[in-house]
Structures are given as structure tokens and as C-alpha cells.
Amino acid sequence: MHKNVGSDEFWLNRYAFFERELGVERLEYFDKTIKEIVKLEDVSAYREVVLWFEFDLFCQVNLLALCTYLLDNYVKKANYYLVCTGKEKGKVQLQSLSDYSLKDYKNLYDNKISLSKTSLEYAKECWNVYVKNNFEQLKGFNFNQSSKFKYLQLAINQHLNRFPSENGFNQIENEILEIINSNSFSELDIVKNLLTWQKEQTVYGFGDMQYFQYLNKLEKYYSISNKKYCLNEKGKAKINQ
Fold it and tell me: What pTM did the predictor assign?
């Protein structure tokens, strides 16, 4: 990870990652990502900049990166705001943007949170800690210092589970092995199980693409017969550690 969001090195790293890990070509990544983000390099023509995000790890990390980018291109006359879904009165589960109806969006917008320059600076401080990817530093840093980012600590706590456990695998990798071991599943079934597990027990906020990637990286620990996955001896040894 590169901390200087929007720099040439940052985008080159992103290009390489998406091309290598996800098979996304550079032109496609440019059109869908870079082309949109660079629009925020100069927001002087806008009175409001409203960021719409959710509570999960995926969104919270992107929120930090975007706040860092906005701070580095700060426009004094623009007003910055945040809409971040999560806890909702009367709801047990944390809410995503897709849980709201169209008429609810006006209420979300009306209750947006103002982000001062100090808020953006705090987000950048958190981003700089995150990109170091050091377990002890992440665990020791207080991500709860600003009420404007109330789901940040929750997201970071989830991120800590992406570091290796005692058997050398992280939470997601161990869950994949457990799912494969529990039944004779196809690739699609495994990912569906992961998405259900994610929604019920975690706040990762990943899509199927990320989970297909995790599954493919564990190919040494399973065999495939008639499109059904089964743990091999290495895989069984891992879940018994």
C-alpha cells in the first residue's frame, strides 16, 4: 500500500494489483476508478461535497483514503459532509445503503455530518497508520478519537482478523477451509456461504470477487472433483492445528 493517495506511484500500485490479482485491465480500471476520483482534485466549483459510505471495513478504508485525497486538495470555500450508514433505531443489524428506500435517501442526506478540515486531518492520520499494515500499531492506535467516524474502530478490529492466526492463516482463510470441510460444495456455493457468514458475523463488506481470490490462493489445500471441493491432507492438517 502507498500512503500518498492520487500520486503516480499510488495509481501504478493499484494498476498492478488489479491486473495481477483480479484480472482487471488498466484501461477498465482507469475508466471506472481513476477517472471518477480525479474529478475531486478540484472541487472549487461546488458548494457541497457529500461522501456516502457504509460501516464495513471495505467502505471505511476507502473513506479514509478519499478524505486524505480531499485534504491534500483542500478547497476552503467548499463544505464537506459525510453520510455513513450503520446503526438505525429499531433495527438489529447494521444497515447498508441498499437497505434504504429511495424516499429514505432524503432523510439520510438531511442528517449528513459536517466534516471540518480537522476531521479530514484526523482521517489522514488514521490512513497513515492503516497503510503501514503493522499489527501492533493498528491494535495500539485509538481509531475512536472522532465521533464523525464512529464505525472506524469496528472496521479496524475486523481488519486485525486478516492477520495470520496460530496456524498461519487469517480468519477468512480458516473460514474457507471450514466451509469446504463441512460439505461437498461448488466454487459458487463456497462463495455464497462466505457472503452469508460475512453478513451475519463480520463487517468485512467484501464482494464475491475478493472471496474468489481468497479461494484460489488456497488451491494447495483442496482438490476438485466434478466441480466439488474437498480438503486434501494439507487442508485437513491446517484446520486441526
Answer: 0.91
